[in-house]
Amino acid sequence: MTAQGQQIRFCTTHDGVRLAYATTGTGAPLVRTANWLSNLEHEWANPIRRPTLEALSRHFSLLRYDQRGCGLSDRAVKKISFEAWLDDLDTVVNAAGLRRFSLYGASQGCAISIAYAARHPEKISHLILYGGYALGKLRRDLSNREIEEALMLQKIIELGWGKESPEFRQVFTTQFVPQASADQQRAFDEFQRMSTSAENVVRIVREFDEIDVRDLARKIRCPTLVLHARHDGRVPFDEGLKMAALIPGARFVTLESHNHLLLASDPAFPMFVDEVVRFPHEHTPIAVNPASENSLTNLTAREQTVVELIAQGHENTRIAQTLGLSEKTIRNYVSSIMDKLQMTGRSQLIVFARESGYGYAAAQTVRRDASP
Description:
- This protein has helices at 40-43, 50-57, 82-95, 109-119, 144-160, 167-176, 182-195, 198-208, 214-217, 237-246, 269-282, 301-311, 316-323, 327-341, 346-355, and strands at residues 7-12, 18-24, 29-32, 61-65, 101-106, 124-130, 224-229, 251-255.
- By secondary structure, the protein is an alpha/beta fold.
- Strands 1-2-4-3-5-6-7-8 form an 8-stranded mixed beta sheet, sandwiched between helices.
- Helix 10 (237-246) links the parallel strand 7 (224-229) and strand 8 (251-255).
- Helix 5 crosses helix 6.
- The longest helix is centred in the middle third of the chain and has 17 residues, at 144-160.
- 43% of the residues are buried.
């Protein structure tokens, strides 16, 4: 997978900001929420960013975008705010024609992903969060010294971000990838510099230091995976634990690493990729369609499993074999599903199920012991 393999397009937000977005890979849709700094073109050349993009693009249709003020999106923008970031995400997924998808957030992108999933439950099938927090640094219970340090980092950006000399930006590079080689750190430092201006970085940092999505996190109802590096120097491990504890039923995975951005050589990297790839396939999404009385949430767990296999295009005989049941039992399940959803034909059910996020999981991952 190379930079030439991505398709870059543009869309415009409600307040007139032009956003760049790109798609790579094939498979079920996975949307990556913008976080920190980005540049769709230069990410592929960066030795720290590229391995994760390549890994995800091998398993998903990966959608990324440059947040306002960064990369190929408009740099000179009037508004940089949490609500604007949510609008950016919604603008991009609508432009891409996505109706239901898995959402992946990293770092402060986790908070944006949480807020979006809570406000748009009908669109999110799975939520995957890495290295994030629900509460921004200046909203936490900090000592006076810690508050001074946070404000000092903002001042460091203001004074030295745009300079050719990397000393000021190196503070952040060291936090993100302390175990990177000298060449990798220089490449990441240059990537940060070319992503946006010092003025925009200050505005971005000030905004995500004030994030608070604790109440929204408690409203999440989709399957959620939370991953965090145990010795993360950028976002404390405890913040990841707190975030996971707020989300009902969230699964938490500890990654043994000191890096905030995992390196391809990091022993935790294969585990990270495996967890992210497997999660959407092993957890049947809860269909949410508030506008419809024919909600798939009215079905039992077994009936939802049958719907998943129907959406994959399997006939009753194959479904019976997969679940270890008789074909007559499957016909009864299908009849019950049709009655509950008030549908008259199998094709109508397939369309409705796929629009609700079903049909992407591999059939072999369906468990025979699904509850009745």
